Amino acid sequence: MVRTFRPRSRSRRAAPLMALAAASALLIAGCSSGSGGKKAEEAAEGAAAGRANTPRMKVALVTHQAPGDTFWDIVRKGAEAAADKDNVELVYSADPNAGNQANLVQNAIDQKVDGIAVTLAKPDAMKDVIAKAEQAGIPVVGLNSGTDEWRDLGLLSFFGQDESVAGEALGKKLNETGAKHAVCVIHEQGNIGLESRCAGMAKTFEGESQTLNVNGTDMPSVKSTITAKLKQDSSIDEVVTLGAPFAMTAVQSVADAGSEAKIATFDMNKELTDAIQGGDIEFAVDQQPYLQGYLAVDSLWLYKNNGNYSGGGEQPVLTGPAFVDESNVDTVGRYAAKGTR
C-alpha cells in the first residue's frame, strides 16, 4: 500500500501557536547571516506553506508526451502537487520519440538528480539508460506505461493501470452496450500500452473488432482517417479511442461520415466529461493520471527519506481502470474541472 502523508486538521486553538512558531522561525532566519540564514528562512517558509521539513531533493519526470496531448497535463499537475508538498524540485521533460526520451533521461543523470520517474511506452529504447541511472545510484520508478516490463528493467516501483486488463474490461462493457463492430484507434504506433488496450478489447469483445493506426500528432489527419474508415464500412457501430482529445475528434468524424457509431474512450479531461454529460461520448475508462504523477514523485521522496517502496518491488500499484459514464459523470466531472481526474 502506498503511504502518503496528509496534513491533519488543526483546531482554532492551535492556529495562534503555529503563527507564533512561524514568526519565531522567520525572526531567527533574519538574525542569521550567510547561507545558513538563507536555509533557515527557506525552511521557515516551507513549514508555513505546509511543505515537508526535509532536505531539498531534485526529481526528474520524463514522459513520452506528444505535443498537445492534454492527458499529460494532468499527470504533471499531480507530480507538481507532490513535489510542492515534499519540498522537491521537479524537472519535467518529454518527447514522443523513444530515442529522444532516452536522451532526456541521460540529461537527468548528468544533472545528478535524486530520483527519476519515467514512462515506458517503448521499453527496449529505455533499457540501457535506465541501467545507467541505477549504476549512478539514482532510484527510478515507472508510471503509466510499462506494467509488464518495469520489473525486468529493475525499477523500484510502478504506478498505473494494467493496460491488458483495462482493454478486457472495455470489451466486456461493449458487450453489455450491444456493440457489434468496433474499431480501436491507436494514435501512436509502436506504443505497447496502446496496443495492449486494443488487444485486451479484442480478447473479450464478442463482436467484430479491428485496429486503426492514426498520426496522433496531426489532429486533422486523425479526423480524416477516422471519417474515411467510417464511410468505407458502415457496419462499424463503435469507435474506441485511446485518449480524450482523440475521442472529441472522433465525435466530429462520426458527424462528417453520417455514421450512427457510438464513441467510447480511454482517459478523460474536462471537455470529455462534458461530452459524456451531453451524450456525445458513451463512456470513458479512467486510469487517474493525476494520481500516477503524484504517487511517482511521492514514492521517490518516501524512498529517500524513509527507505519505503511501494508494491513490495514485485507488484504494480494500480490506479485504474474505472468506468465513467452517465451514472457517475456528474461526480467525477467536478474533479475533472479542477484537472485532478
UniProtKB/TrEMBL annotation:
<keyword id="KW-0732">Signal</keyword>
<dbReference type="InterPro" id="IPR050555">
    <property type="entry name" value="Bact_Solute-Bind_Prot2"/>
</dbReference>
<feature type="domain" description="Periplasmic binding protein">
    <location>
        <begin position="60"/>
        <end position="303"/>
    </location>
</feature>
<dbReference type="InterPro" id="IPR028082">
    <property type="entry name" value="Peripla_BP_I"/>
</dbReference>
<dbReference type="Pfam" id="PF13407">
    <property type="entry name" value="Peripla_BP_4"/>
</dbReference>
<dbReference type="GO" id="GO:0030246">
    <property type="term" value="F:carbohydrate binding"/>
</dbReference>
<comment type="similarity">
    <text>Belongs to the bacterial solute-binding protein 2 family.</text>
</comment>
<dbReference type="InterPro" id="IPR025997">
    <property type="entry name" value="SBP_2_dom"/>
</dbReference>
<feature type="signal peptide">
    <location>
        <begin position="1"/>
        <end position="29"/>
    </location>
</feature>
<protein>
    <submittedName>
        <fullName>Sugar ABC transporter substrate-binding protein</fullName>
    </submittedName>
</protein>
<dbReference type="GO" id="GO:0030288">
    <property type="term" value="C:outer membrane-bounded periplasmic space"/>
</dbReference>
